[in-house]
Amino acid sequence: MFSKKFFAISMLAVLLIAIAACGGPPPTPQTITVIETVEVIQTVEVVKEVEGETITVIETVEVVVEKEVEKIIEVDSENPDAGRVRLDTHITSEPPSLDPSLATDTTSSFFIDQMFMGLTAFDEKANVIPSLATDWEVSEDGLVWTFNMRDDVQWVHRDPSTGAISTIRPVTAEDVAFGILRTLHPDTASDYAYILYIIAGAEEYNTTDPASEEFADLEVGVEVIDETTIQITVMQPAAYFPSIVGQATTYAQPAETIEQYGDNWTEAGNIVTNGPYTLRDWRHSAEIFIEKNPEWIKADQVQIEIFGGPIIQEASTAMAMYENNELDTMADPGDSPPLPDMDRIKADAQMSKELLIAPRLCTYYYGFVNTKPPFDDPLVRKAFAAAMDRQSIIDFVTKGDQVPAHSFTPPGIFGNVAEDFSIGGFMVEDSYDDQLAQAQEWIAEAGYPNGAGLDVLLMHNTSEAHAQIAQAVQAMWQEAFPEASVNIENQEWAVYLKTLQPDSEDSEKPNIYRSGWCADYPDANNWLNEVFNSMSNSNYAKFNNPEYDALVEEAASVADPETRADLYHQAEQILIQDVTAISPIYYYTFIRLYKPWVSVVINPVGGDPVWLWTVDAEAKAAARGE
Amino acid sequence: MLAYIIRRILWSIPVLLLLTLVIFLLMRSLPGGPFDFVGDKSLPKSVVENLERRHHLDWPLAWQFSSYVLGDDITGGICTGLSFLSGCDIVQSGARFGVSRGLIRGDLGMALKLRGRTVNELVAESFPISLQLGIVSMIIALIIGVPLGVIAALRQNSWVDYSGSFVAVLGLSIPNMVLGPLLIWIFPLTLGMLAISGWGAKPPFFLGVFPNVFDWEFWKHAILPAITLGTAVSASIARLTRASLLQIIREDYIRTARAKGLREQVVVTRHALKNSLIPVITILGPLIIAIVTGSFIVEQIFGIPGMGKHFVTSIGNRDYTVITSVTLIYSLLLVTGNLMVDIVYGWLDPRIRYS
Amino acid sequence: MAATGATSKAIAVPQRKERTPLGDAIEQLLKNRLAVASGLFIVLLILVAIFADIFNAYTVQGFDTTPHAPYAIQVLQDNNARPGVTSNSTKLDGFVYWVGADNLGRDLWSRTLYGARVSMAVAIVAATVSMMIGLIYGLVAGYFGGRIDDAMMRFVDFLYGLPILIVVILMQVFFKAWDRQEDTGLIFGILLDMNQAMGGVLFVFIAMGVLNWLGMARIARGQTLSIKQKEFIEAAKSIGVSTPRIIFREILPNVLGPCIVYETLQIPGYILTEAFLSFIGLGVDAPTPSWGIMINEAYQGLRSHPHALLPPAIALTMTVLAFNFLGDGLRDAFDPRLRE
């Protein structure tokens, strides 16, 4: 009796394994029929009028015409892309969205910047350059911006079954207006909609319930003049506005595709794009590939035809694949090389040449909760800011040749004061011993000699990298103020932000918190005003200084660059030197590895222009032993 | 028997529903919401409100739960019928967003952080991968575990038995998070064999689950994680096989077989081994489920896009719907596994009668 | 009541006879060399956990002048020192990294020793909580039987549907989020302090115990069901001994053996769960060392510094192994059917 059942079970098991074995169709070479446009030389008769005379001559000339032909292509299904220039990268996490209105993270933005165009873009020095717009002008009062657009950019669509990329229609000013309004529509629920609040009527439009009656009457200052001209009215003169229209949230979007597919319009096969690349394949949580758009305006300059790779969350795994020549880059949209490998990379004869370190528009800083004793005393804040050996943190912990910071706004941002050491100079003295002596003097002056009586809580969000910096800083403070007690605590990001919110209770807050800020657009307004204005909800330091607020608000509303630079200088003077509301630690760098056969151009703002990159396919194939 | 099974299944529905409610409330009681931040920055209130409205998070909790379980339309219907209930005005104004058709119709809702994606899609992508990993681990565990157990039992109290038992306990004791990195270090890093990470099988899968097993790509990625996950299981299988075989060897009918003068080999393979594997087979189903529900860390180490990975990421993101739904699926698997044990035992051993 | 006390002493006599199997079991256990060695190893580990400061090289050399835990001190200049390297930091003159240093130049040996604290803490806290709940639940269900038993076991069945690891993760997130709330009561305040000393994981240890008592309850119930049929219980009942007294004085000591065996075999699970939480970043706060965190750090740098993986990996595996061997030994000793 047992054996019968045993037999039945084993048969079932065998069946299951057999079924498993049958999975997947065997690969066979395929042939597909494609309709292709080819150039054909034709002989035609032309009637020509000879000048000055009335005789008509019939001449035969050769002209080039485009003709659609059917073509049968044999596809090697094993490797349909043999011979195409390809860059193998990895992707650090599943992009939450490839929708320009919705994307927030660097991975999503990277791909969006390859596939879509905005009115403006940024070059490798973070300057604003024309993109969809050829030029722009602003009215006398600085409130009305008019952008003239090019007319030769096409929307394209890739057919997933044939791989053919075909044009749909030209990109117009309507598409740009549609994109901006879609971002601002409350039902779109775009995270970055607030960056567009500078546009007249935008904030009200974005914050009114669309179900209400008044919503229909709201006006946003975006006006389409004609096919290639768009006019945008802003709330106040904002010299940095051209960089706002280089943000993904303002990119042109294809209304009819979004209408047709709804939330799924960014899936491969549905998506319609206008940039140098288009989406080839997006297997969720597994891999993403983009493919060169042959119809793009500068397609002849684009060398890399296929770009993409697997989604790998662990940097160490990606690093192993990179060293195995399976990946060409350890860089955006993937991870940087892992920290523990930095020493080895720098010591390695080959890899040290592949290492590329470039300035990045971000600042890592420790903020003091300015309202919570004992850090309501500027002297205590200054002492703690001085007792940090920034160079040692960089050399021994972060290891990415970052630059010790003594201002909030990093170099490369309009309005930065990184060259002026009269601001925050005490944080970056040549000799750390001087800093230490100064710190001990200040702490004694504040009434806590050797840190006696200080019980300090330092908090960071859960992350290996932050934990290590915090532990190094903790040790430095312990050394500087031996009688103080410094504790570290970490919280998970969501909780951490809740704790730091300016309207949470001070009793729940730490004394010191870690934070960082990266540029959305390269202007100090994005830093000094949007972060430390007393009204800002990123102002976790609860820094509240009316003079400072007045300075940064004025800087936001004047157009003259010199005046603005001066106002930001004064603001930094207060924030860092006079009251030391925060302690900047370092300006970030990009830490990347590129194989020697890849040559790249890096953009500090927005995604890197992959269309300017090149791959030496021969060298790559040789290295891989192909 | 059938009545018993039906009763068990019916009984599990309120259990799962209650569990869903508990997780639902637990998640929402955590500080911080899914839309308080993007990346490294916190968001202005107005933007958060838009996002919350978009996903019905502005609704009172009871209505949110109703939308998750019953769907938007039924919840809206209740509100139309019983408009005096508190919060109904908000429910009706938010009805224009189709968020969920409800658990009762198999809709697990919309993911909050991965914009525009449904949890059903996420599960459909990731669950087959977790299951494949589970099945391969199981196969490896059987290949290692059964022979080990048999040899140990046949050479009872010899050094083979002792060292076999020792190896089994060692296998049980070595944690995944130790074995995984060790295997990575030995095979791909030092010897240059097998893949470090990722998953080789690509959809579409046969019957939605089975990959093409003739594809080396699949095995290249599957072997190391499956060994990592299967080692502890193979140790339990070895112990189980040994114990069961030892018991059966002492049974009368084996003694009879021996007395008949059958060769020892025949006795063991024909009679003893076959029957001793029955308890092993009965635990296969539940074991696969146990492996699948416990595979996060292996998925994390080997970068496998399975369900565990979604779960871990969505906790930090406060992606309420993903967490609640994934937990629900895990519980469903667990309940199924427990039921399967009982059914298989009942089927194999008629002495067990369920009432 | 005095009379009852006297009688219960009288009926304790047959119980003495029952001690013989216990003596038997101990004798049996002592014969099992692996189990004995494992037991000694665990005792040693507990000592290490308690006296980690003494074993710590930094303290031995007298560098610890600060009030905070010595495992936080770093010597940045020596980061990623290989095993057996002598420190080149002036502060640690002549100090040798026996098993190497981590990313921040901290001695892996001391950190591994300190890591025993968290692992032993979870073993003790979770096991105690789980055993207390499971025993009482099982005793009550088994003793009263009938409807109470039915209802109580239904509840156990319900909890069996919980994916425990998932619930523990959610609980940990929950506790981490709330432990900064201002404390009110004295006891809660002490708990919070203990929690902080443990790197913020005390509550989740308790939660692990709270969620892991199901098997224990089933065993305790089964044992109680069989023991309550015995004559001495009947005798105690007939002379009016109070129910709690019967349960805790008469039944409990007889049930305890198998329950301890069962719990010992659960401990590796707790230790691994803690390591797992730390591995995915939901465990102890830095700089408190935990083997899970150390393994995660080593895993990140596996290509450059593989030596960092071994100390925590061996420590964790050995500990789990020791508990498994001890548990197996105890089971063999207490369950005569398994004896050859």
Helix and strand topology:
The complex is a heterotrimer of chains A (626), B (355) and C (340).
Chain A: H1 2-22, E1 30-49, E2 56-75, E3 86-88, H2 106-115, E4 120-122, E5 128-130, E6 133-138, E7 144-149, E8 154-158, E9 165-170, H3 173-184, H4 202-207, E10 222-226, E11 229-233, H5 241-244, H6 255-261, E12 272-273, E13 277-283, E14 287-292, E15 306-310, H7 315-323, E16 329-330, H8 342-347, H9 351-354, E17 355-368, H10 378-386, H11 390-398, E18 403-404, H12 432-445, E19 455-461, H13 464-480, E20 485-491, H14 493-500, E21 512-518, H15 528-532, H16 546-557, H17 561-578, E22 582-594, E23 598-599, E24 614-615, H18 617-623
Parallel strand pairs in A: 3-15, 19-20, 19-21
Antiparallel strand pairs in A: 1-2, 4-5, 6-7, 7-11, 8-9, 8-12, 10-11, 13-14, 14-15, 16-22, 17-21, 17-22, 18-22, 23-24
Helix pairs in contact in A: 10-12, 16-17
Chain B: H1 2-29, E1 37-38, E2 41-42, H2 45-54, H3 61-70, H4 72-81, H5 88-93, H6 119-154, H7 159-173, H8 176-191, H9 216-249, H10 252-259, H11 264-276, H12 278-282, H13 284-293, H14 296-301, H15 307-317, H16 320-348
Antiparallel strand pairs in B: 1-2
Chain C: H1 2-10, H2 12-31, H3 33-50, H4 52-55, H5 57-60, E1 85-86, E2 96-97, H6 108-144, H7 146-160, H8 164-178, H9 186-197, H10 202-211, H11 214-227, H12 231-238, H13 243-279, H14 291-300, H15 310-334
Antiparallel strand pairs in C: 1-2
Q: What is the arithmetic mean of pLDDT of chain C? A: 78
Helix percent of chain A reads 25-40%
Largest sheet of chain A: 7 strands, mixed
CATH architecture of chain C: Orthogonal Bundle
Domain count of chain C: the total is 1
How many distinct domains of chain A? 3
Give Rg of chain C in angstroms: 24 Å
